[in-house]
């Protein structure tokens, strides 16, 4: 499944907020998914709880995070939300520094999202496209980049 089937203008957030706490930033990364009923509010709470228990497990590389919880934590339909933090967010990841791009993953089960994970992996490995997403001014600009995956 290509990323642009799961990501629309309505699931992209460009945040210019500064000095967000971890919980505030996580709320932003799930905001459209909750608003659209794609995940239950308890999905966000599960991410926060897991962060509290084990740290920033979802910070995958410098500048990149993929917040997620288990399907049974409140996923109603497979979905992704792209959040760009223009000011960066400190998710307390010792190795990776501030996050600028967070793609929240809401999977129905472990097997059906393999293609999505592969596409996300390809995106995450392309530093030029990650930087272009960070610099993007509009949701449409971000979608144009996402369509390649």
Q: Any overview of this molecule?
A:
The chain has 149 residues and is an alpha/beta fold. It has one domain (3-146): Mannitol-specific EII, Chain A (3-Layer(aba) Sandwich). Helix content is 38%, strand content 19%. Helix 1 runs antiparallel to helix 2 (41-54). The protein is globular, with a radius of gyration of 14 Å. It is found in: Cytoplasm.
Question: Would you summarize the structure shown here?
Answer:
The chain has 149 residues and is an alpha/beta fold.
List the helices and strands and how they pair.
Elements: E1 12-15, H1 22-35, H2 41-54, E2 59-61, E3 63-65, E4 79-89, E5 99-106, H3 114-124, H4 127-135, H5 139-146
Parallel strand pairs: 1-4, 3-5
Antiparallel strand pairs: 2-3, 4-5
Helix pairs in contact: 1-2
Number of separate domains: 1
Largest sheet: 5 strands, mixed
- Low-pLDDT segments: none
- Could you name the CATH class? Alpha Beta
Topology order in helix (H) and strand (E) letters: EHHEEEEHHH
How many runs of DSSP E, i.e. beta strands? 5
Q: Any guess at the CATH architecture?
A: 3-Layer(aba) Sandwich
Protein name: PTS sugar transporter subunit IIA
Subcellular location: Cytoplasm
Domain PTS EIIA type-2: 5-149
Keywords: Cytoplasm, Kinase, Phosphotransferase system, Sugar transport, Transferase, Transport
Q: Main attributes?
A:
globular; 5-stranded mixed beta sheet; 149 residues; alpha/beta; 38% helix; Mannitol-specific EII, Chain A
């Amino acid at each position: 499944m290509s990323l642009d089937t799961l990501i629309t203008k309505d699931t992209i957030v460009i945040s210019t907020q500064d000095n967000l706490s971890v919980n505030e930033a996580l709320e932003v990364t799930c905001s459209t998914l909750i608003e659209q009923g794609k995940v239950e509010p308890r999905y966000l709470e599960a991410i926060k709880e897991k962060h509290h228990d084990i740290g920033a497990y979802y910070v995958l590389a410098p500048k990149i995070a993929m917040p997620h919880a288990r399907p049974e934590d409140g996923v109603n339909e497979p979905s992704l939300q792209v959040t760009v933090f223009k000011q960066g967010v400190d998710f307390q990841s010792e190795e990776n520094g501030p996050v600028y791009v967070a793609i929240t993953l809401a999977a129905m089960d472990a097997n059906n999202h393999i293609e999505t994970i592969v596409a996300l992996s390809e995106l995450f490995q392309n530093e030029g496209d990650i930087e272009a997403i960070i610099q993007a001014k509009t949701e449409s600009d971000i979608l144009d980049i996402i369509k390649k995956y």
